[in-house]
Design brief:
- The protein has 261 residues and is mainly β.
- The chain has a single domain, classed as TolB, C-terminal domain (Neuraminidase), CATH 2.120.10.30.
- It contains three helices and 20 strands.
- The strands form five sheets. A four-stranded antiparallel beta sheet has the order 1-20-19-18, with no helix packed on it. A four-stranded antiparallel beta sheet has the order 2-3-4-5. It has a four-stranded antiparallel beta sheet with strand order 6-7-8-9.
- The longest helix is centred in the C-terminal third of the chain and has 12 residues.
- The two termini are 23 Å apart.
Length: 261
Amino acid sequence: MRDIDITSILSRHPAGNSLGLAYNPVSDVLHLAHGSGSGGGFIYTLDLDGNAIKELDFEEAYRAGSYPTSLSFDRVTGHLFVFAFGVGDGVGNIVEMRTDGSAIFREFTVPIGGGGGILVRGDSIWQAMFASDVIRQYARDGNVVRDVSVSNSFPGFPGPEDITSSFTNGFFLNDFFGERIVEVDAGGREIAAISTAALGRGLGIDADASTQRIFLQVNNSDIYVLSSDFIGQIPEPSTFTVFGSGVLGLIGCYLSRRRCY
């Protein structure tokens, strides 16, 4: 396990949370999204020591008032996909662009879904639907293909916040409130649930199957690089219950996109 400190990067523009993380195996770098609302949004390119290589003002690259909430690097095209908020009530745009922001190739509108983490792989785009306990599959043209339920692992509200590929063609789902990484197969059936409580609350996740690494951004402060061994070490029950007004307050803080730490 490695720990990359990103506090100095995020302190450049302190408004909002850092909800998007993507590993780029072509350049061996990380792309990190940060920002919300009127504070604008930025995408940083970092080396694996946490040094900033590039800072991209997303509003200038895409459109005024928008900010990035999830990222996914497409290994087929070499492009970066961004889930952009601030483009309409209850919806966001999935935007395909060059990693440096110099060209926008296409966009399509999808429901926010209460969460918004996206994953691009093969011919599909996947979205974690936070409020409905499903992961949604889209074709590359933006048409909905199907919803895959993960309700056995996320009973009721809240559901998965972010999504990436697992090492076995399934998915790793980031459970922000439960402080877990949940692995499911392609049909949504749970394989494992791993506590991240010792690390913190995960805000963005990505993985690289070729090197068997998971990248987890926690607490707006650190990116942990986890080996495949991490997945098997602490199994948990597939269900949990959210109690108390303190957790409800945290949910409200998250959904309003205010800084929660």
